[in-house]
Design a protein that fits this description.
Blueprint: E1 3-8, H1 22-29, H2 32-42, E2 46-52, H3 59-76, H4 83-86, E3 87-93, E4 106-107, H5 113-125, H6 133-145, H7 149-161, H8 169-182, H9 186-197, H10 205-217, H11 221-233, H12 241-253, H13 259-269, H14 277-290, H15 295-305, H16 313-325, H17 329-341, H18 349-362, H19 365-377, H20 385-397, H21 401-413, H22 421-433, H23 438-449, H24 457-469, H25 474-485, H26 493-505, H27 509-521, H28 529-541, H29 547-557, H30 565-577, H31 581-600, H32 606-629, H33 633-645, H34 650-662, H35 668-674
Parallel strand pairs: 1-2, 2-3
Antiparallel strand pairs: 3-4
Helix pairs in contact: 3-5, 5-6, 6-7, 7-8, 8-9, 9-10, 10-11, 11-12, 12-13, 13-14, 14-15, 15-16, 16-17, 17-18, 18-19, 19-20, 20-21, 21-22, 21-23, 22-23, 23-24, 24-25, 25-26, 26-27, 27-28, 28-29, 29-30, 29-31, 30-31, 31-32, 31-33, 32-33, 33-34, 34-35
């Protein structure tokens, strides 16, 4: 027969991530040899009839699916240049029970605008063909040239996201406006988002609201979801969870893919509804099944934090990768966090940097802060406080309050900027007003240490407790340290332990290190060096900066482990790589001890002893200076002692000890008196 009939019983949205993809369907139905024989035998008479039996397939879905099957056949055809002339393609819908009498009422026009739009979507999503943004762009351009409204909107999206083209928000706006003029209801929602985000235009929530409402009037459910988002977050309107929920539910009922994500987020956060992680999970799963861009990362966050499900970093990684693949800016940032801390993946700072940069490119405001933190710490990049500051400022411009807190911390500690407690306090207070919980910890630390304010342990405690109530991970450890040292509260190691455990439960790497200190010193628990070692190792695996130094000290001194200076050195170097000033100080002290051993060792000749001692002392000086550059006050005192005892320079010893005193080192004044400086 010159006719080939195919019945397809699944939905196109399943195509990319299940076995029954359009590629596997095509390869099952059309073999290269059979296709070649059919084309050669029937030439201008070959007719392919496609019947779609899945009830959820829309006409647009069916047309796009037929387009991609046609494209795969054309690419494999031995007469691809004449394929359009030699074959006729028809498609239609039919219930499975009536396949025998199915009608093929639609003729595929491979030169029509609709064909280019449908096939462009398949290349854009990678359904049945390899994902190819450049090819998708070319097809949307052909459709736009032929006057198709959807083509211009889809092309605008590619310019908005920088997919297959250089990112250009102004071009995206121009194309969305063309889509609106031509009658595409989706274009209202796309243009509204740019006004909401302030991309290519001055941020204008009121204009965004108008465009969403116009889109709703044109029957666009995505616009209904977007309007709900404005009410959910109080953007240009009074915050109204009830109104947001109503809009999300209406969009959800109409099949919008993002509406389940909106509803799920309300259940997760308890906004206008009782907090319900299981309901949130159900909604996110529905969103994923419908093709939501944002639902995979949202479900991944539940697995990351163990909310309503067992904590599972591997599952979170898979979902973040899925979300990144779908173009979600937050998903790439969240995936970067996993690589930064080695959760569910091998720790890889370079990969984290790459993912944060992708998040920035896609418009995620949190990515600026995350990348800034890596530049601040020198992880995966050369340490650069100036670049960190730039990134934090860019994040603030994008509305990210965590970046405001991070910038405040630079001013608090004088990292790449002149130390300015007033500026730091202002930034912390603004970030607090914006809802950032870490800013409570930052401001609390200023009251704890009397930085730019009168020292006030009671106020510090209040701020840390507020941070704890907001589920901040750092706040319990900050308050725990007050109980550990008896600052403004009665000394209470048991309370400190409980607070450190709470921080560890919330995912703070440093909490494991704090607990390790309790076990090492027997404070509030029975002294247990083995347990301390386990906790320090856990802190290291979670990415904590201080844990390598503390475990290194155990190996240096042979506490709970065999004395092993090479292992201690390796751990100190790891801590230095992570940005720890304490690790640099300890490595300097270890080199100083090595110098003393070389000086008296019978293993070496007098010349070798002198050479090795000189090398060790130079190394000690270098790493003390590194520790000082990172803000260590104890390194100032140790460097002074190095000049006094080993480098034989009383003048420099006095100068460095005076600096240690000015920096607040408690032992420096006594040494200056002893040395008659």
């Amino acid at each position: 027969s010159h006719q080939v009939a195919v019945a397809i019983g699944y939905h196109m949205r399943q195509g990319r991530h299940v076995v029954n993809s359009y590629k596997s369907l095509f390869d099952t139905v059309f073999y290269r040899n059979e296709l070649k024989a059919a084309v050669q035998a029937f030439r201008s008479k070959l007719q392919v009839n496609i019947t779609f039996t899945h009830p959820a397939m829309t006409l647009e879905d069916m047309h796009a699916a037929t387009s991609v099957i046609y494209e795969r056949a054309r690419l494999l055809s031995p007469v691809s240049e004449k394929f359009q002339e030699t074959t006729t393609w028809r498609w239609g819908a039919c219930a499975k029970a009536n396949l025998a009498v199915g009608a093929f009422q639609h003729l595929l026009d491979p030169d029509g605008a609709r064909f280019f739009v449908g096939l462009g979507l398949m290349y854009y999503d990678g359904l049945g063909v390899a994902r190819d943004f450049k090819k998708a762009r070319e097809l949307f351009e052909h459709g736009t040239e032929r006057g198709d409204a959807i083509a211009s909107t889809n092309l605008g999206l590619m310019y908005q996201n920088g997919q297959g083209v250089t990112q250009d928000f102004h071009k995206a706006i121009e194309l969305y406006e063309l889509g609106i003029k031509r009658g595409d209801s989706f274009a209202f929602n796309r243009l509204g988002f740019l006004y909401e985000a302030g991309k290519g235009v001055v941020q204008d929530f009121r204009r965004a609201k108008e465009l969403y409402e116009m889109g709703i009037d044109k029957g666009n459910e995505a616009a209904r979801y977007s309007l709900g988002r404005l009410y959910q977050h109080g953007l240009g309107v009074a915050r109204d969870f009830q109104k947001a929920r109503e809009l999300f539910e209406l969009a959800h009922t109409s099949g919008d893919p993002e509406a389940p994500f909106g509803l799920g987020s309300m259940y997760q956060l308890g906004q206008g509804v009782t907090k319900d992680f299981l309901a949130a999970k159900t909604m996110y799963v529905t969103g994923i099944q419908r093709g939501s861009v944002y639902a995979p990362a949202a479900l991944g966050s539940l697995y990351h934090d163990g909310l309503g499900v067992a904590r599972d970093f591997k599952k979170a990684r898979e979902l973040y990768e899925f979300g990144t693949d779908r173009g979600d800016p937050a998903a790439s940032t969240n995936l970067g966090l996993l690589y930064q801390y080695g959760k569910g993946v091998t720790q890889d700072f370079h990969k984290a940097v790459e993912l944060y940069e992708l998040g920035i490119k896609r418009g995620d405001s949190f990515a600026f802060n995350r990348l800034g933190l890596l530049y601040e710490a020198g992880k995966g990049v050369v340490q650069d406080f100036r670049r960190a500051k730039e990134l934090y400022e860019m994040g603030i411009d994008k509305g990210n309050e965590a970046a405001r807190y991070s910038l405040g911390r630079l001013y608090q500690h004088g990292l790449g900027v002149a130390r300015d407690f007033q500026k730091a306090r202002e930034l912390f207070e603004l970030a607090m007003e914006g809802g950032d919980s870490s800013a409570l910890v930052g401001l609390g630390s200023m009251y704890q240490y009397g930085q730019g304010v009168a020292q006030d342990f009671h106020r510090a405690k209040e701020l840390y407790e507020m941070g704890i109530d907001k589920d901040n991970a750092e706040a319990p450890t900050a308050l725990g340290n007050m109980y550990y040292h008896g600052l403004g509260v009665a000394l209470d190691f048991q309370k400190a332990r409980e607070l450190f455990e709470l921080s560890l439960e919330r995912g703070l790497p440093g909490a494991a290190t704090g607990l390790g200190l309790l076990y090492e010193n027997g404070h509030g628990v029975a002294q247990d060096f083995h347990k301390a070692k386990e906790l320090y190792e856990k802190g290291i695996n979670l990415g904590d900066n201080l844990a390598p130094e503390l475990l290194g000290r155990m190996y240096r001194d042979g506490v709970g482990v065999y004395e092993h200076w090479d292992k201690a050195k390796e751990l100190y170097e790891m801590g230095i790589e992570r940005g720890s000033a304490e690790a640099a100080t300890s490595l300097g002290y270890l080199y100083q001890q090595m110098a003393h051993v070389f000086k008296t060792s019978a293993k070496y000749s007098p010349v070798e002893r002198e050479d090795y001692q000189g090398i060790a002392l130079r190394k000690a000086k270098e790493v003390y200076e590194l520790a000082i550059s990172r803000g260590s006050t104890s390194a100032l005192r140790y460097l002074a002692l190095l000049y006094k005892t080993d480098l034989k320079s009383d003048k420099l010893a006095c100068q460095w000890m005076a600096k240690a005193k000015s920096a607040g080192d408690g032992q420096a004044a006594g040494k200056l008196a002893d040395w008659h400086c």
